[in-house]
Amino acid sequence: MFILREEKQLENAIKRAKKIHPKVKILDFGKYMVTGSKGNLYTVVCRKDERTNLKMIDCSCKASEKGLPCFHSAVAIAQHIYLAENRRQAMSF
After folding, report:
1. Tens-place pLDDT, residues 20-51
2. Hey, which of 7, 71, 72, 92 would disulfide with 34, CB 3.0 to 4.6 Å?
């Protein structure tokens, strides 16, 4: 798991994701299944800690276990932001 403090943390993960083009399946809002570089499946959870208001991302891969941003998290975060914006816009009507 890692805490997303700034986009710069994800630069390398985003570059890798652009090369690999992993697939993302939405399991629920905030929970995603992402394909790895060798076809493995990883679960990524995006959430906001209610106490600290920090954005936290947890992936089931080895890099995330070490607290490092992975490309699975990068693509899941992109999907999450897209869904969150759509939800926000739908609620404003």
Report:
1. 999 999 999 999 999 999 999 999 999 988 89
2. 72
